[in-house]
Amino acid sequence: LSKSIDFLLENAGAVIQYRLKKEILKNIKKSEEENLLEQIYNLPNFRLVQSYVKHNGYIGSGAHSWDNWRGVCYHETPLQDGEAAARLLSYYAIPKTHPIVKNYINAMRDEYTLKNEFTYIPPEAKRYENRFVGINSGNCLMMLIYTMQALLGYGDDKELHEYQTISLKGFEKILNISALDDITKFDANSKRKYNCPYIESDDYFPCSYTLSMLAYTQNWRTNETVKMLADSINRLNMIMKPENNLAIKINGQLIGPGWALARPIMPFTAENIATIMYRRLLSEIAMLGVGKNVDILNKSAVNIEEAINKDGILSLELKYPKTKGYAQYPTAYCDIQLEPDYKRKYALECDLTFWAVQFLYLYNGGLI
Question: With b meaning 16 or more CB within 10 Å and e meaning fewer, what string describes 32-58?
């Protein structure tokens, strides 16, 4: 990876420089760390998040919420959404001791504050009322709130131990089935426009949020649980079908679960963008510590090494079918952008190359 690292050290912006030196090279000096953090704090997106902080510490309006409701705009930019703000703070590696992060965590753990933040429009009030329904498959407000805390570095606090266990049980479920049909129900008489198989609200099933909960935490890790996750992900890719659809039944209604892992997870290739967030998904699987025991990681590592073999730089044509380009802001529906301006020379290549370096570092167990 020497060519890739040299390229990043010469061309990358403050966020990548900071994360590369602190998380991977582990050679950052205190004065350099302070200088890079100061640069990050002055980036436009961080300043936007800073402007959305409320007096109670909460950031923006809702989380994975309505940006418009009956003609009223609640999100001037995507970063005014609580989840997007948490993702940016996490991806920019803002220290968990920073006042914005600490106050945000306190807001998410204060019931009065949380209720107030999720009753500003009728749909959010209902969402808050049912905030724990569907938690075993990650499809509820509270699993999102817990995952946001994990992203910000607080996922190993005792308040969240139970939800690490819930997340593990979803992956354990995959080891006990031979197909999605084994655990779903289907109402052929339903007049629902998009009728599809469903699970009950208390059923366990893995999704991108329960994956993130485990990726960003440590307390659950034993040799046995790491092996279980590797086996589960391999089996998931073996038994799930690309055409699978899945809903969850909550209070008599079928709700489409966000990013349920009901379809095969695609390995990285330089020629094809499989989904709008698949690099992030592969990174989080690698963060589990499963390394070379997961087939899609093995295939991805080979393809990444081939793609950067010539000059150390990863280049792709990123044209997603739904986003028409690359997302400027972090949301639940996109990969991670660490460079603030893709008009700058090599900015996109720096983002992609850092991802490649980080992935291979995680895949190889923290070795470069």
Answer: eeeebbeebeebebbebbeebbeeebb
* pLDDT exceeds 70 at position 160: yes
Order of all β-strands in the sheet with 198-200 = 198-200, 247-250, 253-255
**CA–CA distance, 167 with 138 (Å, rounded to integer):** 8
Question: Which is it for the CA torsion 99, 104, 109, 114, positive or negative?
Answer: positive
Q: Look at residues 244, 241, 224 and name the one whose alpha carbon lies nearest to residue 232.
A: 224
**Between 276 and 148, the higher pLDDT residue:** 148
| Exposure b/e, 305-335, CB count within 10 A at least 16 = b | eebbeeebbbebebebeeeeebbbbbbbbbb
How far is Cα 178 from Cα 337, in angstroms, rounded to an integer?
A: 37
At residue 59, what are phi and psi to the nearest 5 degrees?
Answer: -115, 125
The tally of CA atoms less than 13 A away on the side-chain side of residue 221 is 12
Cα angle 351, 356, 357 (rounded to 5 degrees) comes to 100
Q: For residue 20, what are the CA distances in angstroms to 8, 177, 246, 357?
A: 8, 40, 38, 9
- Strand, coil or helix: what is 266? coil
The set of residues, in sequence order, having a beta carbon less than 8 Å from that of 95 and lying 6+ positions away, is: 37, 101
pLDDT (tens digit, 9 = 90+) per residue, 9-62?
999 999 999 999 999 999 999 999 999 999 999 999 999 999 999 999 999 999
CB-facing half-sphere around the CA of 100: CA atoms within 13 A: 21
Q: Which residues pair with 69 in a beta bridge?
A: 72
Q: CA 15, CA 40: separation in Å to the nearest integer?
A: 6
With cut-offs at 50, 70 and 90, classify the pLDDT of residue 330.
confident
**What does the DSSP 8-state code read for residue 265?**
P
Contacts of residue 3, Cβ cutoff 8 Å, sequence gap at least 6: 308, 311, 312, 313
pLDDT value at 170 more than 70: yes
Residue 303 C-alpha from the chain's centroid: 22
269 in Cβ contact with 261 (< 8 Å): no
**47, 61, 96 from 38: Cα distances, Å:** 12, 27, 15
Q: Which of 277, 162, 151, 170 is nearest to 217 (CA)?
A: 151
